Amino acid sequence: MMEISDTGGMEKMMYTDPKTIVPPKNLDELIEELHKVFDSDHVNVEYVTELMASYKSNPKDWKKFAIFDLHRYTRNLVDAGNGKFNLMVLCWNTSQGSAIHDHANAHCFMKVLDGHSQEELFEWPPGSEDDGEMKSKGKKLYERDQVAYISDTIGLHRVENPSHSDTSVTLHLYSPPFSECQSFDERTGNARKVQVTFWSQFGKRTPCAKLPSSCVPENN
């Protein structure tokens, strides 16, 4: 089983020291490095965060994956990570956002490629049906090339494009990949399982994208 750690232990393992990172020149080089990193059974959170941050966003690299929709944000698969991770481009039209959600015990790295992204963290609801409104742990605004990290041990979150005039594009890595997660009602804390879908895969629209009425609303 692959272990993802936020510590710098196992110094003898490769891909643990962020000081050794050579910034990728383009998205393809970043993907190549991510494959090397996740080929190990031990993955260091700080290293992956710094690696993704070191890639300087260039629209020429990701434009073919950036497929927008007027009514919902879209999840566009870029690389399947040999089953160890999914890398995708999420496209946010003005003021679009996700529901409050967990990450199915996976690790989530989010890099801003264009525009801004606002993350609001929430505490896990205690579990009773009458818990009332969920508790926010604060908001943070991320700018181009900044990277955020979250896992279920940190809490839940909601991501949105805070701009009323500009679109936003973000790059997300999930490890391990997952096909469903929990979405939470902010007013009650009640959870429901939702299927997560791809609006496109490798730059091509998926059947689900052509029939949005048949798809469950996405969560990132």
Describe how the helices and strands are arranged.
Elements: E1 3-5, H1 27-37, E2 42-44, H2 45-54, H3 59-62, E3 74-79, E4 86-92, E5 100-101, E6 107-114, E7 117-122, E8 136-142, E9 147-151, E10 156-160, E11 168-175, E12 180-184, E13 191-195, E14 200-201, E15 204-205, H4 207-210
Parallel strand pairs: 1-2, 3-14
Antiparallel strand pairs: 3-4, 4-11, 5-12, 6-9, 6-11, 7-8, 7-10, 12-13, 14-15
Protein traits:
220 residues, mainly beta, 7-stranded mixed beta sheet, 34% strand, globular
Descriptive overview:
- With 220 residues, the protein is mainly beta.
- It is 13% helix and 34% strand.
- The chain is built from 4 helices and 15 strands.
- The chain has a 7-stranded mixed sheet with strand order 9-6-11-4-3-14-15. A 3-stranded antiparallel sheet has the order 5-12-13, with no helix packed on it. Strands 8-7-10 form a 3-stranded antiparallel sheet, with no helix packed on it.
- The longest helix has 11 residues, at 27-37.
- The protein starts with a strand and ends in a 10-residue tail after the last helix.
- 35% of the residues are buried.
- The model is unreliable at 8-12 and 211-217 (pLDDT under 50).
